[in-house]
Amino acid sequence: MAGDKLQQAQQEDAPALHLVVFPWLAFGHLIPFLELSKRLAARGHSVTFVSTPRNIARLPPVKVDHVRMVALPLPAVDGLPEGAESTADLPPEKVELLKAAFDGFAAPFEEFLAAACSGDRSGGEEQSGPFARRPDWILLDFAHYWLCPIADQQQVPCAMFVIYTATWIAYCGSRQENTNHPRVTVEDLMPMPTWFPAAPPSLAFRRHEAAWLAAAGELNVSGVSDFERYMRAEERCRLLVVRSCPEVEPRVFPLLADLYRKPVLPAGLLLPPAPDSDRRDDVSSADHGALRWLDAQPPRSVVYVALGSEAPVTAEGVTELAAGLELSGARFLWALRAPGGAAAVRLPEGFEQRVAGRGVVWTGWVPQVRVLAHGAVGAFLTHCGWGSTVEGLFGFGHPLVMLPFITDQGLIARIVAERGAGVEVARREEDGWFGREDVAAAVRRVMVGEEGKVIALNARRMREEVVGDDGGCRQERYLDELVECLRRYSS
């Protein structure tokens, strides 16, 4: 106890940091980077958050001091639609154009950083006060392979903030490990690699998931593959900061420091804020129609369905998912978003009329944290993006119905299934196709009968083991320790 008080006093006496935070142009990245920024700013540190004008305008309002938004216009690229500034604005096949445009940020970012380090206050009053201090660190994302050389010129250290699981970082591996143990075929990419010891057989990618990973290792229009971006950026960063913690992935963190030969720091889960803070300027989320509908449903009777803004769901997939929800007989609230670049999603003819009373489809914005906190919600059908998993499982203890697609989502689904806290929708191995019967069967297993009760209990226990009963204070301590490490490794 005395040691904790001494450490707290030392933290209060230490000067505040100035951090430049620069996420990749996807809302699955922008949101956790913004949440990390707010948590650091709440501790008295100054954060300069860099993105494009339209992305900044679409982010939730920041209600803490010491966060400054800097908008850099996205360079034009032939074939990239006007106004497309995030992956949510594009179909999957055009995201490589966004990466090409993103690489054009190098010159304007170099100019911005030089001004920030020289004390140039040409930006006016916003750049006075705490933001007049030269940046102590840059926290960057996987795509910024060109940024570290720019930072080196100004002698500003870089750390990579990884929004994925620690297991995914171990799966990707360092360049040295990939050189020593190359993975060439789709079959090579399915199991955990040789440098990940004693991985359970269940912790593996399906064939269709590994095929996506193989494509991520190929050159695209930008001239640099996604894996090469990650490796180049990682090699130049002093630290890796991970949105996870040892309570979730106990065997992985000790491996990462040896694997990458640098400190790998948990940032904690960045658990969702209290529902009262989940608001938008144009909509009072407390009065949202989806919540009013939930108010009329029995406790723990509703499956909340949300596949994020960027899951590559085909029109056929939407049809089968809808038919599966209808076939399951369960109550459901479906937050349905059109795929990137599409104006709308077509549901099966007559679907909404047939499920009226027990199911509702919401195509606009839904206050997800408030929905997950509602007493009528009993399960979460999710794509297993790490942010959504953190919110649903670790934030509120909901069992999961899991329909993973890309990146580390398959690994997350297998980790949760191994703990008995969710059920994965069965899919065809070679291409990932799923049918309505597969959806209905998974929903029924989670929502109906004794098996559903056991799965719900496992989900609550998993949350308790990770979050504890201290209101999330354990998770907040990871951020305090992160700040101390940033101070320690800055010189």
Automatic annotation (TrEMBL):
Keywords: Glycosyltransferase, Transferase. Its EC number is 2.4.1.-. It comes from the Eukaryota. The keyword DNA-binding does not apply. One of its GO terms (molecular function) is glycosyltransferase activity. The keyword Transferase applies. Pfam families: UDPGT. Belongs to the UDP-glycosyltransferase family. This is Glycosyltransferase. It comes from Urochloa decumbens.
